[in-house]
Prior knowledge:
Order of helices and strands of chain A: EHHHHHE
Number of helices of chain A: 5
Shape of chain B: flat
Structural class of chain A: mainly alpha
Strand content of chain A: 5-15%
Order of helices and strands of chain B: HHHHH
Strand content of chain B: under 5%
Oligomer: heterodimer
Radius of gyration of chain A: 10 Å
Number of strands of chain B: 0
Number of strands of chain A: 2
Radius of gyration of chain B: 19 Å
Structural class of chain B: mainly alpha
Distance between the termini of chain A: 5 Å
Shape of chain A: globular
Distance between the termini of chain B: 31 Å
Number of helices of chain B: 5
Largest interface: A-B, 19 and 17 residues
Amino acid sequence: MRNILLELRAQRGMTQGDLADALNVSRQTVNALETGRYDPSLPLAFAIAKLFKCRIEDIFSPK
Amino acid sequence: MTAPAYPVKNADWNYVVEMFVVAVLYIGVTWARPWLIAHAASPGLVTAATVAPAFPVWIMALVVWRYYRSIDEYRQKRFLEVLALTFGVGVCIIVTIDALYPRTTFDWAWPVLAVTWGAVSAAQTIVTAMQYTQSRRG
Lengths: 63, 138
């Protein structure tokens, strides 16, 4: 899947560590998500969407 | 997502500390076992001393389980990959060594599995780093 996590994080001036803390995941996980090496589970995708006040499909889209 | 046992950030450190304590316990019990067997006052105590090294191993399994429960989903996936590959590769190596040099005990299998675990973890880290570099270029 493609995602705009990096852009959303940059818009809010957050570091990968900040985002990791907000989602209670590791920084490696945020990095893997941003680089498209890992697709999140639905609960994590919902948590990300809630954090950025978007819908899941606004953040994630099929390649 | 299920709630982790403790914050994801502390998972690695807690794992290292817990595993170190259990490893010391295992070495201590294994080292003391011959003395305990020789000085056991009853057959029941001899049996207890004989199986004593198994208990730290069970605690070790518990420590690994706690660690697995306290890391996030991406790292759980990676952890399970390493575990599965270690089991597959480790069994192949152990069976091959046993066929070539049949022995009565399997004490040597532990270090083989430990080295395999380390090698598989290192390989996974290298592959991930290569994928990361590739994704940055793409």
